[in-house]
Design goal:
The chain is an all-beta fold and 373 residues long. 3% of the residues lie in helices and 42% in strands. The chain folds into 2 domains: 254 residues, Immunoglobulin-like; 80 residues, Immunoglobulins (Immunoglobulin-like), CATH 2.60.40.
């Protein structure tokens, strides 16, 4: 896969040293290695005060516009050669995906009607919603059987490779008296709290038809080793980032092979289950305008050099802004958007950012967050 990152580099010469700070302003990722070129789906950003509760009640998702819904019409059956227009009376699904700025989680609402829900056999023979995610677009195979190195076999290969850079969740629909999913990888810990959670809502029995509601969230990982989260690297989710994602629906209508109705998938390639190159492009969308204030001050900071008490302040305000004023808590001020400030002595400082624009004024304060020694 191809990855292109556009960054603006700001350079300050302060005192006797040269300080270089990279501030990512925008980036674009070429999705040419992903399946369905030219197709890009959207991931809805939930406001921080409207995070969906994982309880099987879809009412939290009513704020998500219907243009975020991904339905049956986007799926293709790739093992039996069946036409979904014909089979839609037997199986119909709708999926919405969300995220929350500051939380590296993907939230899902899966709503499905099936004329025959198959979940009596506590094994892999089960109606399944299979989700595969590649949070950093590293691409490539994620299961040992598809590794290009044919010599990579055996147990060691599984624990070194399977699901490490992209993850596959086989989610049972439904899952009475069992774990909600199995991870097709070497790291089953990723389906447990605090890395994932799920809830169901349905009133049918095995073999009956009806509607199922499944709510869940998962944590994508750039690196998810077999031995637990201590060495893991969580995928960082930020606005406008592109990730690789796809899902499939495995539909069983009885115990025999003839009762397997197909592998309906968003990628349109069966290999999406084990190769991240065959996922689909999804964009982490900004907060919709209706949830934004006309002008809203926010900021963060990084310690550049603690010995010199040198701090870089980053404006993260939203809205149309015409002026910035920083008060650093030591009597100094700045009207730069992204100032660098050097404190003269150790202390705990109260820092204020004031902004103005056509939409009004806003202020953001951090009390004793900025501490230098």
């Amino acid at each position: 896969m191809k990855l292109k990152v556009d960054r603006q580099c700001r350079v300050w010469r302060i005192a006797s040293g040269l300080v270089t700070i990279l501030l990512p302003l925008a980036f674009s990722v070429s999705a040419t290695a992903l399946e369905r070129p030219g197709v890009e789906f959207k991931i809805f950003q939930f406001p921080a005060d409207k995070i969906p509760r994982i309880d099987g009640d879809p009412s939290d998702w009513s704020i998500v516009p219907e243009n975020y819904s991904i339905g049956t019409d986007q799926l293709k059956e790739t093992t039996k050669g069946r036409d979904f227009n014909y089979d839609k009376k037997d199986l119909d699904v709708k999926v919405k995906v969300g995220w929350v700025k500051g939380l590296n989680r993907l939230y899902f609402l899966y709503e499905a009607y099936d004329n025959y829900w198959d979940f009596d056999d506590h094994s892999r023979h089960n109606d399944i919603f299979e989700v595969v995610v590649d949070g950093d677009l590293s691409g490539g195979p994620l299961v040992v059987s598809r590794h290009p190195n044919s010599k990579l076999v055996g147990g060691d290969a599984f624990f070194q490779f399977q699901g490490v850079q992209a993850q596959n969740y086989h989610i049972f629909t439904p899952a009475p008296e069992r774990d909600w999913a199995f991870v097709w990888g070497c790291q089953p810990w990723i389906k447990e709290l605090p890395w994932a959670n799920a809830a169901y809502n349905y009133n049918f029995k095995h073999g009956e038809g009806g509607k199922l509601i499944l709510e869940f969230w998962i944590t994508p990982f750039d690196y998810a080793p077999f031995d637990g989260p201590e060495r893991a690297v969580v995928s960082k989710l930020i606005e406008s980032k592109l990730i690789g994602l796809s899902w499939s629906v495995l539909d069983y209508d009885g115990p025999d092979e003839k009762d397997y109705k197909g592998f309906w998938n968003l990628s349109h390639k069966t290999s999406m289950s084990g190769n991240a190159d065959d996922l689909v492009a999804f964009r982490l969308m900004p907060l919709e305008t209706r949830f934004q204030k006309p002008i809203d001050a926010r900021w963060s900071y990084k310690i550049i050099d603690m010995d010199r008490r040198l701090i870089a302040f980053q404006d993260e305000s939203t809205g149309q802004i015409t002026s910035w004023r920083w008060e650093f808590g030591d009597g100094s001020v700045s009207t730069d958007r992204h100032p660098i400030h050097q404190y003269g002595k150790a202390g705990e400082y109260i820092v204020n950012l004031y902004i103005e624009g056509p939409g009004g004024k806003s202020r953001w304060t951090k009390v004793r967050d900025v501490v230098v020694r």
